[in-house]
Amino acid sequence: MLFRSNVTDRKIFEDHARRFEREFFEDMTALGVKEPDVVTRVTEYVPQIVDYIQGIVDNNCAYESNKSVYFDTNAFKTKGYDYRKLKPGGDTTEEAAVEATEEEHDHEGESTLEQVQERGFLKCGVSTGATGFTEVGDDGSYSGFDVDYCYAVAAAVFGDYSKVEFKQLTAAERFTALSAGEIDVLIRNTTWTQSRDTELGNDFGPTTYFDGQQLMGRVSDGLSSSSTLADIDGLRVCTNAGTTTEKNITEGAGLVGATIELVTVEAFSEAIDKFIAGECDIVTTDGSGLVGRRAVNDALNDWAIFPQSPISKEPLGPTYRSNDSQWADIINWVVYATIIADEYGVTRANIDSFDYDAAPEMGRLFGKNDGELQTKMGLSADAYYNVVKQIGNYDEIFSRNLNPLGLYREGGANARWTEGGLVYAPPAR
Question: What structural domains does the chain harbor?
Fold first, then answer.
C-alpha cells in the first residue's frame, strides 16, 4: 500500500530534520567534538548536483536507464581516468593506493582466462534467490540451474567443478559488478536484450532457458489462468526495479489501455512478500520465477499465473564482458557441450562407457580421439568431458533443478530442436 502526504508546507519536514541535526551536534559537543564551520545539506544543493551528474552523462561516463543514472566504470577508465574501489578494512595509505594501482595495471594485459587460472577459482555472479535457478542451503551450499552452469565453467577451466566462488547480486548490481571485474561471468536469470548487448559493454552467451514474462494474482480477485493483461486495470503491480520486467509490464499495460499502480522493489523476494501481505494485487516476473515461488510457498497455492501466452520473450543465459573472444568461446562451448551431449544421450552415468568411435563428434568434444579445438581455447583436451562427467548434460541439469517445480521441456521452447523446441547447438567440428 502506498501512502501519500497531503502536507503542502515543506517547512514541517525541514524543522523536523533540523531538530535531530541540532541534537546530534549537542551530543558531539558533549563528547568534545567541535562543531563544523560549514554545514552542507543535499536539499540546498540539488541544482548543483543535477548539473554535476549531467556533466558526467555528457562526458559519456554514465548512462540513463529506467529513469535512473548509472556510472559507467569501463568508459571512465577508457578515457584515462583512474577508478579505485573502496574495500572494507583496506589500507588507505598513499603507499597502499599506489600498490593497488600497480597490481591492477599488472593484470590489464591478461585475458579473463589467465586471470581466472592465476587466481585459482572462478567468480560467478548469481541471483540473490531464484527458486530452481539459485538457492542457498542452510549449510551455505549453492544449487540450481544457473548455479550448475557456474559449476560447469569451473569444471571446464580447472577440471574441478568446486573451484568457484559465488557472488549473489541484485538486478541493479549485476551489470556493474561484471563491468568492474568483480565477477568473471554472470549467470543470473539475465535477459538478452539489444540495449544490454550494445550499451553496457557486455556480450551474451547461448540461451540456456527460454522464458517469458507472466503475472500472478489472486483467484479471490476473479483472476485465473485464462485472465489477460487487460484484467489488471486499476490494480497494484509489484516487481523489482531496473529490470526488463518493469519495462515490459509498463509498456504492455499501456498498449491494452490498463491503468496500473506500479510498486517497485530492489529484490524480487520483496515483491513476493508484498504480494503475500496484500500490499499489491499482482506480482510479475519471468514465468519460471512465478512457478518456482508458487511451488515452494504454501501461501501462493491458490494464486493464478496468467496470461497463458507470456507477454514477452525472455532468453536467459550467461553474460560476460565484451572483447574477450577466448573467454566467450569457453563459456559458449560449456553450454553447447551440455546440449550436444544431451542430443547424443551422453550422461554422467554412461559417459565412460559410451562408444565414441561411433560418434566422432562426441569424441572430438570430449578429447577422446582429438582435443585440438579445446587446447586452442587454452583448456585441456578433456575440458568438456569434465563438464558432463561432473555436472551432466543439458537434460540432466534441467530435470534435476526444474522438474520438481513443475517445469518441463516437453512441448515447450526448451525442448530439443529435433522435438520442436529451440535448444540447439552448432556442431563440434
Answer: 11-78 (no CATH), 213-312 (3.40.190.10)
